[in-house]
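Marked as duplicate of an earlier ticket. Keeping the data here for the record.
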Amino acid sequence: RSDWLRARVREAKAGRDAHLSKLFEADSRPTQRDCPVLEVKLVEAEPAAFRMVLDYIYTDQIDPTKGFRERHQSNEVVLSMMQVYMLAVQFHMKRLENLCINYLEASVNHKNVLVALKNASQLKLFFIKEFCLRFIIKDATYNQIVMSKEFETLDQPLMVEIIRRRQTPQLRSLQEDARSETGPTIHDDLRYFLRNGAEFADISLVLEGTPIPSHKAVLAARSSYFEGMVRSFCPPDNKVIVSIGEMVPSRQSFDSLLRYIYYGDVVMP
């Protein structure tokens, strides 16, 4: 779901393979099952924000309030969404970027906008900082905000910027400045992954002698049959002969099954 993360996984895999090549001869290298777990270090990612990114990657949804909807305008939640937005930009996840923008635009109000502005400035999220500035200088909110105690504690450069921007007020939706590109859905990404994800395949489903590169995590998440097989009966070489009892399904019908497993397609050929 992220080309940036995909590149980091490739780099980590190449590094692991190079390390194993130094330790073992070609014919004595450990199988994929026995290889050490692949590690991708994300040094600058805040753990809670990255967990929310993972929620989005797997479900196409995100809930920074963890079910407590009344917290959606709290400073803590707004900051969390800024951190998620920062990761979305870094990971080139346009759809998640837009989701964060929509959330922040709906959550920023006169009580939290100064904290949001300060955090956006510190995190160098200039896109969000711009929205906060435009919100502050609105006629309906300006006096209330600049007369608040929070404004008195604001860093002087931000105070000056607010006052200068007030001279030429202009407020547009944050979305007006966003690019029109919406980014792929989880349906789009998994459809692409089924067709082009052989590089990251960790199991081969062999049908009539033809291996079909597949992914254990997707199969196990969508089918209790495959989950049981991956947990208990997967052969060491990760090659599984596909059969239903003594019957071997046709390639056409099995492709239909895989389309359903990966992205919920129920259109039969």
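See parent ticket for discussion. Residues 3-23 form the longest helix (21 residues).
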